[in-house]
């Protein structure tokens, strides 16, 4: 994924923001700086302006807000600008806004005051976790805790724990599986690195593909992003074939669309074996 940062400096707009009645009545000059990070893979690949972020449009949206209805706080104004740009430009991943107020009514000599804010786009994300060696439930609990404390990642829901038969290589112990969903500003490869770091910290050792492991964490999806390179494919290429993924995922995100189809639909169409995935006893304590 290629990212570009657009810097816009000194966008000057007349507005009526402030706490004092004179500020909203008389108005004053505000100066805006923008730092906008955007994905540019398609724009670069096609050299097509239609897929790029228009600098003029960024300015127009900002001018519209600064020149519009007054806010008491320039902090609120900065936040609204950041939110609007993220909402109106889908390829934008991060917005930094600095609002200068050169004529702030402060009874001391100064060149002005300013506030800065940064907002990042949060995308829905899903993980599958499994373990079939050692203290399986403990490994899952620890992995979920570390995922939930990672900066830039918010875990919103965790499924119950499920017993499942091995998949891909049958002659090994059964697994305990779970899924977690949330929102993140992290890139796909940053999430992959996080999964691998947690696996390493919990003692996962290199072994046979699809063989026994203390912990396995798969990144299932990241918004509607598609990706295929030598280390990562999104959505997960085998997600739709695995009951041990779809059953816990359907419990917490039945309507999440993956590859254009809801999870509940993928699960309903999956051929199942009786007892292939079953909720563990005492599950309410795991959530």
Automatic annotation (TrEMBL):
<dbReference type="Pfam" id="PF02152">
    <property type="entry name" value="FolB"/>
</dbReference>
<comment type="similarity">
    <text>Belongs to the HPPK family.</text>
</comment>
<keyword id="KW-0547">Nucleotide-binding</keyword>
<keyword id="KW-0418">Kinase</keyword>
<protein>
    <recommendedName>
        <fullName>Bifunctional folate synthesis protein</fullName>
        <ecNumber>4.1.2.25</ecNumber>
        <ecNumber>2.7.6.3</ecNumber>
    </recommendedName>
</protein>
<dbReference type="GO" id="GO:0005524">
    <property type="term" value="F:ATP binding"/>
</dbReference>
<comment type="similarity">
    <text>Belongs to the DHNA family.</text>
</comment>
<keyword id="KW-0808">Transferase</keyword>
<dbReference type="InterPro" id="IPR006157">
    <property type="entry name" value="FolB_dom"/>
</dbReference>
<dbReference type="InterPro" id="IPR043133">
    <property type="entry name" value="GTP-CH-I_C/QueF"/>
</dbReference>
<dbReference type="InterPro" id="IPR000550">
    <property type="entry name" value="Hppk"/>
</dbReference>
<dbReference type="InterPro" id="IPR006156">
    <property type="entry name" value="Dihydroneopterin_aldolase"/>
</dbReference>
<keyword id="KW-0067">ATP-binding</keyword>
<comment type="pathway">
    <text>Cofactor biosynthesis; tetrahydrofolate biosynthesis; 2-amino-4-hydroxy-6-hydroxymethyl-7,8-dihydropteridine diphosphate from 7,8-dihydroneopterin triphosphate: step 3/4.</text>
</comment>
<dbReference type="GO" id="GO:0046656">
    <property type="term" value="P:folic acid biosynthetic process"/>
</dbReference>
<dbReference type="GO" id="GO:0016301">
    <property type="term" value="F:kinase activity"/>
</dbReference>
<dbReference type="Pfam" id="PF01288">
    <property type="entry name" value="HPPK"/>
</dbReference>
<keyword id="KW-0289">Folate biosynthesis</keyword>
<dbReference type="GO" id="GO:0046654">
    <property type="term" value="P:tetrahydrofolate biosynthetic process"/>
</dbReference>
<comment type="pathway">
    <text>Cofactor biosynthesis; tetrahydrofolate biosynthesis; 2-amino-4-hydroxy-6-hydroxymethyl-7,8-dihydropteridine diphosphate from 7,8-dihydroneopterin triphosphate: step 4/4.</text>
</comment>
<comment type="function">
    <text>Catalyzes the transfer of pyrophosphate from adenosine triphosphate (ATP) to 6-hydroxymethyl-7,8-dihydropterin, an enzymatic step in folate biosynthesis pathway.</text>
</comment>
<dbReference type="GO" id="GO:0003848">
    <property type="term" value="F:2-amino-4-hydroxy-6-hydroxymethyldihydropteridine diphosphokinase activity"/>
</dbReference>
<dbReference type="InterPro" id="IPR035907">
    <property type="entry name" value="Hppk_sf"/>
</dbReference>
<dbReference type="GO" id="GO:0004150">
    <property type="term" value="F:dihydroneopterin aldolase activity"/>
</dbReference>
<comment type="function">
    <text>Catalyzes the conversion of 7,8-dihydroneopterin to 6-hydroxymethyl-7,8-dihydropterin.</text>
</comment>
<keyword id="KW-0456">Lyase</keyword>
